[in-house]
Structures are given as C-alpha cells and as structure tokens.
Design a protein that fits this description.
Arc Repressor Mutant, subunit A; disordered N terminus; single chain; elongated; four-stranded antiparallel sheet; five-stranded parallel sheet; 268 residues; 9 helices; Rossmann fold; alpha/beta; 2 domains
C-alpha cells in the first residue's frame, strides 16, 4: 500500500480536520467495539478517530496481519476494518483464518485494488463489504454504520421497542414521539441495549463494548447510566422500559412493564 496510503490519509485528514491523529486509542469510549487492522500508523489513527467521532465506537488498532488476527480472535468485536495489503499476514489470509475460527463479525476491507477478480475473492472469503482507496469519508462512515447495524440483526437505522424509538443515525431517542435529552454515554448505553433488545445484557458485556480493552477500571459506572436512563425514559413513558435481573444484567423489553413502588429505593 506504499504510495496510496498518503493519499488516503490526506483525504481523511482534509475532511475531518486531522481527527484522532496521534490520539491514544485507550482514552476514548463509545458504544460499539471496532478493530482497525492497518499498518500505516497515521492512516490507522485517522480512521480510528473518524469512527470514534462519527460512528461512536471504541476502537483498537493492530499494525500488522498477525497482531490483527490475534486481537480479532481474542476479543469480541462488532466490526473489523481490514486493510488488504498488510505485513506478516495479508488481509485476505487474515480474513480466511478469522472466518475459519468461526467468527462472524462483519468485515469491511480497504483495498487499492478494484479488479473484479479481487472483489470476488474477498467476498467469497467472507468479507461483508469493501471500499477502494482513496475513499470518501461520508461513504466510509455510512458503510461502517450499516455493517454495525446488520451485525446486530438491524437493517433500519431506527430501532423501535415499545414506545421507545432510537435513531442510530441522528443519535437520538424518543418516547411516544417526545425527544429525550440524554448525555452521550446514556445514549450509547441505550443504543446498545436497543440493538440487543429482548436479550439479557450483563454489565461486563456493556463495559466491554462501551470502552476499549481497559474497560475493567470503569467499575460501577453502568449503574449510574442505567439510573439516569430510567429516570428520563420512565418519566415520559410511565412504564419501566429497562428491566434488571439482579446479579445478571439488564434487558430492554418490547413489552414494557407498569411502574411499581420500590420500597428498597433500588434504581439499579
């Protein structure tokens, strides 16, 4: 990819104001977890910054194919952004090994080659989508968001759960048509629960997907966000939208339950 990477980097930097260049991957938090496998450090940092700011993702970076395969198979990622021309292990080899391990996370491949044979080989190996360099910033973010939704079984950007409506493009939430003012982290928690609605989501799963691989140090912040969400959502809905299974996790059910008195005052 020598010779093409600087052009891609300039395209991204000019559009995003050098977003994320030189930033530490470990300091940002989002609602989905993405692995970027890219050997050009500046390009990798710019792509990671764009994903954090536009797709609200926690992003890890791997600088070569071997490290990328190790990280991809060692953690749970919602999306892989994979460069085709990588040292140690090519993107195509990584993709095949990743799929052979039984992993089904969506994979977006970045490639400087757009020949029909290359595209066919990538798709047959298990790629979900691809972009040819240099790529348009808006298209890159849109394709990543679409793959993130598709990976959670969602095709529409608007998720409906009872009276609750979560717009994953506008990053907004409404209850009964009324927009709810949420903090950035409250929204990210709510969107993840909405994408997994009906399922029981543990605190550890939320933490792992809200933060990077240092998530253990954030302790009991989930209870704080759940408490804030309940206060704001239930004040409008008049129903309990987020259920708690003590010691196990949280669930956003489509069948909302009426609010009941809580003599213990436990809002977690």
């Amino acid at each position: 990819m020598n010779g093409i990477a600087p052009l891609v980097t300039r395209t991204i930097a000019d559009s995003a104001g050098e977003v994320g260049c030189g930033a530490s991957v470990k300091k940002w938090s989002g609602h989905m977890r993405v692995l970027v496998v890219e050997d050009e450090e500046r390009l990798a940092q710019n792509v990671a910054g764009i994903l954090r700011d536009n797709a609200l993702c926690a992003v890890d970076i791997a600088p070569d194919g071997e490290e990328g395969l190790f990280q991809a198979c060692s953690a749970s990622y919602d999306l892989l952004v994979l460069d085709l021309m990588l040292p140690k292990l090519t993107g195509l080899e990584l993709l095949k090994k990743f799929r052979n391990c039984g992993r089904n996370s969506p994979v977006l491949v970045l490639t400087a080659r757009d020949e029909k044979e290359t595209v066919v080989e990538l798709l047959n190996a298990g790629a979900d989508d691809y972009l040819t360099k240099p790529f348009d910033l808006g298209e890159f973010v849109a394709r990543c968001k679409a793959l993130l939704r598709r990976g959670k079984g969602e095709h529409s950007p608007v998720i409906q759960s009872g009276p609750l409506e979560v717009d994953t493009v506008m990053s907004t939430a409404r209850v009964g048509g009324n927009r709810i003012a949420l903090t950035a982290m409250e929204y990210r928690v709510l969107e993840y629960l909405a994408l997994r609605r009906g399922a029981l989501v543990s605190k550890e799963e939320l933490l792992e997907h809200l933060y990077d691989f240092n998530w253990e140090r954030f302790g009991n912040v989930i209870e704080v966000y759940i408490s804030g969400l309940r206060r704001k959502l239930e004040g409008v809905a008049g129903k309990r939208l987020i259920q708690t299974v003590r010691g196990m996790g949280y669930s956003l059910d489509q069948e909302s339950q009426p609010l009941t008195a809580n003599p213990r005052g436990d809002n977690r």
